């Protein structure tokens, strides 16, 4: 037979686990699925100036390929508002930041 305090400890442990899981939960759903980075055939180091042609346009697949080729980037990544992203620098990557309407607001290498 268990001691009465062990039942209370089990209840406390369960409550702590539930609070921990709730704290890890996102308060709002993430934006619609992140766009996976698009590798560009023959790409290399990114040059941001030629990629500025993307600003103001819709970030569809054709624009990603066009901006990637103009910039020389090997990878193109679309960054949506409030989307979690990795912060490591990659000189071969072009980042296209978009607004809620999927319009490119900035282009940067890294």
Question: How would you summarize this macromolecular structure in one to three sentences?
Answer:
The protein has 110 residues and is α+β, with helices and mostly antiparallel strands.
CATH superfamily of the domain at 38-109: Trypsin Inhibitor V, subunit A
β-strand percent reads: 15-25%
Number of helices: 3
- Classify the fold: give the CATH topology of the domain at 38-109: Trypsin Inhibitor V, Chain A
Could you spell the SSE succession in H and E letters? HEHHEEE
Span between termini: 62 Å
Can you list the strand order of the major beta sheet? Answer: 1-2-3-4
CATH class descriptor of the domain at 38-109:
Alpha Beta
CATH architecture label name of the domain at 38-109: 2-Layer Sandwich
Shape category: elongated
Rg over CA atoms: 22 Å
Structural class: alpha+beta
Describe the overall structure.
With 110 residues, the chain is of the alpha+beta class. The chain has a domain at 38-109: Trypsin Inhibitor V, subunit A (Trypsin Inhibitor V, Chain A). The protein is built from three helices and four strands. The radius of gyration is 22 Å and the shape is elongated. It starts with a helix and ends with a strand.
